[in-house]
Amino acid sequence: MSNQVLESFVQLLYLVSAALFILGLKGMTKVKSAQRGNRLSAVGMLLAIVGTLIEAGRIDYRWIIAGVVIGSVIGWIGALRVPMTMMPEMVAIFNGFGGAASVLVAISTLYLLYLERDYTQRLAEVIGGSSALTIALSILIGGVTFSGSLIAYFKLQGKVVKSEPVLIPGRHVINAILFLVPLAIGFWFAFGTLEPTTTALLAWAVVALSLILGVMLVIPIGGADMPVVISLLNSYSGLAAAATGFVINNAMLIVAGALVGASGLILTKVMTVAMNRSLVNVIFGGFGAIPEAGAAGSSSDYGPVKSGGPEEAAMLLDAAEKVIVIPGYGLAVAQAQHTIREIADILEARGAQVLYAIHPVAGRMPGHMNVLLAEADVPYEQLLELDDSNRELKTADVALIIGANDVVNPAAEKDPQSPIAGMPVIQAWNARSVIMIKRSLSPGFAGVKNEMFEYPNTMMMFLDAKKALQGIVGELKQM
Q: Is the distance from CB of 247 to CB of 159 less than 8 angstroms?
């Protein structure tokens, strides 16, 4: 096969791959077509890898095969063993690995094309000024993505790094320095007249500073903002990949990175709108602290609260004609999605209508509740977006809230001084009766008292979500 034919074949693979990526992203916008979209994207990635290997020419395939096998085994085991509650952590780690890969490719390219050949010319004269500068940008963005994603992972776990914001004095000035200095170093090693050894040291300096910057950017952000942070880091990983595509002159990597970067930015915008906050406010505001004992929203802040058990909840649900389920992170923690589906099946068999109100930032990552309910085979047609949810709640007999708090807090609409003021919320209080399953009166991540606990139409169930729902199932079956 001639070189021209081979090149045309590679470009055709890249074209098909790009089309599959776009169709895959389109498919993942709907729960019903998400699996198909994921498969299309996977096939597109396989074709892109094949095209890249063909374009690379003579390479040692033993290393390629070893990498594919090891990576596939790790990914397969991880996907099977990671519980739904840790899905946000897995997404954060994936983002971080993408950033780390960009750093490694950029550094490897620098060594292969310049440092190992003992050139006496400056870097820009050997590989071109734009390519030299792109290496620095790829290292900078990739490093920030890697370390920032690790911090997001640990914050979501709440073990190594605490979930609440860590507000370092003078952090904005420090971050500005950590951003500007690597850029200056990048220009220096790209266009300066330097020894190759000095160029290598400067490249590693950019790596170190970018890693520190990633930590500094994410550590002041609290748990309530993790969905936004994850989508933003996803965008960063795409930008890093696109920059790496310019480094190695691979058009497919540029296209794929641009798609990930753009979709991540769009998703970030959707999330910030859902929280009625700006991206700047998320990154620099330090919002999302988990309150200390005795802070706003503790049990001492509430007046009389009506509570009940599975029997009372089952009686309300059995008499209802329309039930709207509002899932939150507590449902994911309890792994009770299959139990709520069982309740829905019982109610639907008795003639009731069951719908699910999904808030864009419920849970710990974008689309967390959609994925959770899809795992229990909840029909996509029963999932309502925010505006539709609030319209349906006005005629609902029961709103069943499972582990959600901030996204149903009326303070967002009624208290202009509240930290969540203006945030679009699910107006669960408009239902005739509200059943709120929550283990205590503690506030959500925003640390704000939820006065709906005190409303006369609200019944609190102070139980683990799975135990509460299993109890309701038992009671309903006896009716």
A: no
First to last CA, the chain: 74
Residue 378 contacts residue 369 (beta carbons within 8 Å): no
* From 225, 318, 388, 406, the catalytic residue: 406
Domain ranges of the chain: 1-81, 100-285, 299-478
How does DSSP classify residue 291?
P
pLDDT tens digits for range 77-127: 888 888 766 777 888 888 999 999 999 999 998 888 777 776 667 777 777
Is domain 299-478 annotated with CATH 3.40.1170.60? no
464 given a catalytic annotation: no
**Residue 455, SS3 per DSSP:** coil
pTM: 0.77
CB atoms within 10 A of CB 458: 22
| HSE of 374, CA atoms in CB hemisphere, 13 A | 15
DSSP 8-state assignment for residue 427? -
Q: What are phi and psi of 375, to 5 degrees?
A: -65, -30
Q: What is the b/e burial string over 21-56, where b = at least 16 CB atoms within 10 angstroms of the residue's CB?
A: bebbbebbeebebbeebeebbebbbebbeebbeebe
Q: List, for residues 218-264, the tens digit of each pLDDT value.
A: 888 876 677 788 888 889 999 999 999 988 888 889 999 999 999 88
Q: Please tell me the distance from the alpha carbon of residue 215 to that of residue 284, in angstroms, as a whole number.
A: 13
Rounded to 5 degrees, what are φ and ψ at 273?
A: -65, -40
Distance CA 321, CA 465 (A): 23
* Residue 2 zone, left/alpha/beta (φ > 0; ψ -120 to 50; rest): beta
Of the candidates 194, 175, 176, 180, the residue with the CA atom closest to the CA atom of residue 132? 194
